[in-house]
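Hello Y.,

Per our agreement to keep a running log of every chain we model this quarter, I'm adding this entry. I've kept the format consistent with earlier entries: sequence first, then predicted structure.
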Amino acid sequence: MLAPAKSDRGLLKECLRTASRIGVEVTRVKSLEELEKIGEGLLLVLGEDKDVLKALHYVKSRDVLILGVSKTENNSFLMETTLERLEDALRAFLRREYSVEYSSRLKAVVDDAETPCALNELAIFPRKSATVLEYSLYIDGEFVWRDIGDGLIVSTPIGSTAYALSTGGPIIHPQAKVVSIVPVNSLNLTRRPLVTPLESLIEIREIVSNSACEVIVDGGYRMRITEKVVVKRGEDVGFVRLSEALLARRLEKKARMSLDISSLPPSAKLILKVLEYEGALTQKDIVKKTMLPARTVRHALAILVGNNFVKKRPLIRDPRQDLYYIESK
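Predicted structure for the entry above:
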């Protein structure tokens, strides 16, 4: 069993103590790159959703099973248990009282370089905000459309309830073998999201923008585009499930959230997504990561805080600044 190195030290120590107490041997992974060499086993990912997404960029084998462990109760798809319930979770795993839920992933070839696999989505955007992108979309070699807009999101079924949902994409059953292609703020009002088979070869060619463009993998890993992007199926990943999956409840929650955020301005949606991936950030951090003007960020944060999408608290090391975060439900 494995635990990633870059996690909260207190959480890591408590996890190791719990495993030792019930006689489970845990090997600590010293760097994320080591995950590429692992062929099988149980990977304990400690922390938050962003820690799971980052670890999965390096997991190559379908036989590495993921068990997300959070500090406190977390209703996300990625975190299956908490530190408090970890002992029970490990005992259930040893008794084989679990199921494995496999999720599809995508990967892209950007010019001649391959990105890590994406669990949620591959997003194609200009690096500079408030800049449009023009591109041609091909599926299995057949021309589909020429579009102009803010960008394009290619989403897995799991990712259909993440960033893609906030930009108008459909909610897709997690086990469906399809991909959704979602234009972001297209200038063509008739343009709608497109659902294709998972095995489709998706190409984004003839990319034109006044800014350099890049592929963003699960909101974190970025790769600059020179000519084109080819998206194809990646390796599946298995999540350990210790209880019956309440799929209907998860989808209902996401559907309600999509209605709530539909009226938000694009800048607020972008900040919401950055906070979801990155965790708590100051206003200065948000400006840096989104590349939005400071005034736009201040206005968007006021909307998000006023509508209870985002919470804020004083930064301990500098009370003059506030820390903005999404409260776990």
